[in-house]
Specification:
seven-stranded mixed sheet; 3 domains; binds copper (II) ion; about 475 residues; binds CU-O-CU linkage
Length: about 475
């Protein structure tokens, strides 16, 4: 008995031995200039080093910083020009994930940015308040570039989110959490070297990073704190919980605010998904709570509630009004089966039996037409499904609306499709007709995407709805970048 006691106290010591030595980095808000009423951002994609481990320089990629990227914060209705300058020694692209923009401004695989050139994404922000993100999208290279550190947030505000009474002081009570996991070599360099099996099963690690730091701490007020959580991992599912199992409120999904807060005590996010949550720390002054990943039981970040200052103490009960389309409004159904073609080492991840081909348009979608996209995971492994340019609503899981949980009933652009399951979503393409340039849909497990689990669609004129809201932007908006030595 005595021996058992000392064993268990040793275990307790081991469990509490994490040192939260680093303050949570908050990616700064990207600065901009206003030129003729247009907000102009200069975003430099470059290689650098970051001290992820004390005293060791780990090679990383970042955007205006050494790892991850500065946060772009813009408002619905803003005209923006984002100059993405590639100072890497190889091509990349930069996609605005969740951004509702014309296909040629989407930063997909075709918007290749050669080294020492700049590609300009130019558009008018045309969507509700939401937490979005940017990351490379070069075919076959997306996974590696994201893994090296290329990911950042794009926060969109609107008149509703400005005035509704949510915490909104960036980095203080409105805190971005970009969550990833990474493997390291014995010399503590980022190790991206998936085997064929890991391309299938996912390239994962138990070393987790929040905003590019391993086990950081964050100091907060004893009030409601808003976290904007992004799963920016290559292929990990994160199930987030707090160490005291406290409940919290989810207020937003990928595409914006929910109608009302949804109470949860854990939050599952698959790669590419975002959630905004509110956590009530009033009454917790002087205590510390750990944010954990529950599937692997990893302590990710320590939250110190250490200042008693006036924060947000009452949260709104109504957040948003969402337009919903019933299944009966749908004009057609498209089926997408996530599968694998070929055998053994010649096999590839595919959709409907086809691997990605940049020169093939897989689906032609009429504008303003309500459609059901029926996505089936035919495999015994995890997948999800992301659609560019739009936000959809999840209508059914495995044939029933009762299987759709309350916190999935907002606008989404990534949906989890568990092994051997299916999900029906309602899609409506509302803008940006372009019969030549496509948008992507794909599994957001980046190894699967790079292996071919991706397709392409265009949005075309619908004779029944001839209204076009958008005038095409000329391709000569694309600038040439004068190389600047790093
Ligand atoms: Cu997050 Cu096609 O992208
Ligand atoms: Cu996307
Ligand atoms: Cu997948």
């Amino acid at each position: 008995m005595k021996q058992f006691l000392s064993m268990s106290s040793m275990i307790v010591i081991a469990l509490h031995s994490i040192v939260y030595a680093k303050v949570l980095p908050i990616p700064p808000l990207a600065s901009y200039t206003v030129q003729n009423g247009v907000k102009v951002f200069d975003m430099n994609i470059h290689a650098s080093t970051t001290q992820l481990f004390t005293g060791i320089n780990t090679r990383t990629y970042g955007v205006n910083r050494s790892i991850l990227g500065e946060t772009i914060r813009i408002h619905n209705g803003d005209q923006v020009k984002i100059n993405w300058s590639n100072r890497l020694s190889e091509p990349t692209t930069m996609h605005g994930h969740g951004m509702h923009v014309p296909a040629i401004m989407d930063g997909g695989p075709k918007n290749k940015i050669q080294p020492n050139t700049t590609w300009q994404a130019s558009y008018t922000v045309n969507q509700s308040a939401s937490t979005n993100w940017y990351h490379p999208h070069l075919m076959g290279k997306t996974a590696e570039h994201v893994y090296m550190g290329l990911a950042g947030m794009i926060i969109v505000d609107d008149d509703n989110s400005d005035t509704i009474g949510l915490p909104k002081t960036y980095g203080v009570d409105d805190i971005p959490l970009i969550i990833q996991d990474k493997r390291f070599t014995s010399s503590k360099q980022i190790d991206y070297s998936p085997s064929r099996m890991e391309i299938m099963r996912g390239y994962t690690s138990s070393t987790m990073l929040v905003n590019g730091a391993i086990t950081p701490y964050v100091n907060v007020k004893d009030s409601w704190i808003r976290f904007r959580v992004l799963n920016a991992s290559n292929s990990s599912l994160y199930d987030l919980v707090f160490s005291d199992s406290r409940s919290f409120k989810q207020i937003a999904t990928d595409g914006g605010l929910l109608e009302k807060p949804v109470t949860l005590n854990h939050l599952l996010l698959t790669p590419g998904e975002r959630a905004e949550i509110l956590v009530n720390f009033s009454g917790d002054l002087g205590s510390s709570i750990v944010l954990k990943e529950n599937r692997q039981n990893i302590d990710m970040m320590n939250i110190n509630i250490n200042s008693a200052s006036a924060g947000v103490n009452v949260i709104p009960s109504k957040l948003n009004t969402l337009v919903r389309y019933p299944l009966s409004k749908a004009k057609r159904t498209r089926n997408f089966v996530l599968n694998r073609i070929g055998r053994g080492p010649n096999g590839h991840m595919a959709i409907n039996g086809k691997t990605m081909n940049i020169n093939r348009i897989d689906e032609v979608v009429p504008i303003n037409s309500v459609e059901i996209w029926n996505i089936t995971n035919s495999m015994g492994m995890e997948h999800n499904f992301h659609i560019h340019a739009t936000h959809f609503q999840i209508i059914e899981r495995d044939g029933s609306s009762a299987n759709v949980s309350a916190n999935e009933k907002g606008y989404k652009d990534v949906v989890h499709v568990p092994p051997f399951s299916s999900v029906k979503v309602i899609v409506k393409m509302e803008d940006y007709i372009d019969s030549k340039n496509g948008y992507m849909y794909h599994c957001h497990f980046l190894e699967h995407e790079d292996d071919g689990m991706m397709g392409q669609f265009t949005v075309v004129q619908n004779p029944n709805n001839p209204v076009v809201k958008w005038a095409p932007i000329q391709m000569d908006d694309i600038l040439t970048f004068v190389p600047i030595p790093l």
